[in-house]
Amino acid sequence: MDDEQSEPTSKQPEEPPLNPPPREEERPENFWALVAQATTLGWNLVVPIVGGVLLGRYLDDMFGKEFTWTLSLLLMGVAVAFNNLYAMYSESKN
């Protein structure tokens, strides 16, 4: 008698992969949503900072100052950019 055949063989079910590949239907939508979110983040951070520097430079040239307006509006632009970032963060949590 064969001992190999008398032992019951239990076949374990295959486990699903930990990270299944995304379905084709979901991928473009998620990709474009991510691109839109990154673009919005970029605009909300860059525009106030660069706008403050450009406006400050213009005002410095207009009033004959060295860098007073540029520095002031740069700091204001950074503050507005962080405010925009916080608003986007709090909006995404809701």
Would you mind describing this structure in some detail?
- With 94 residues, the chain is an all-alpha fold.
- It has a domain of 58 residues.
- The protein is 72% helix and 0% strand.
- The protein is built from three helices and no strands.
- Helix 2 runs antiparallel to helix 3.
- It is rod-shaped.
- The relative contact order is 0.10.
Question: TL;DR of this structure?
Answer:
By secondary structure, this protein is mainly alpha-helical. The chain has 3 helices and no strands.
Short descriptors:
mainly alpha, 94 residues, rod-shaped
Mean pLDDT equals: 84
The counted number of beta strands is 0
The assigned structural class equals: mainly alpha
H-E string = HHH
Query: Strand percentage, roughly?
Result: under 5%
End-to-end distance, in Å? 69 Å
Helix segment count?
Answer: 3
Apparent shape: rod-shaped
Q: Determine the fraction of residues in helical runs and give it as a percent range.
A: over 70%
* Computed CA radius of gyration, to the nearest angstrom: 29 Å
Taking pLDDT < 50 over at least 5 consecutive residues as the criterion, the unreliable ranges are none
Q: Layout of SSEs?
A:
Layout: H1 3-6, H2 26-63, H3 68-93
Helix pairs in contact: 2-3
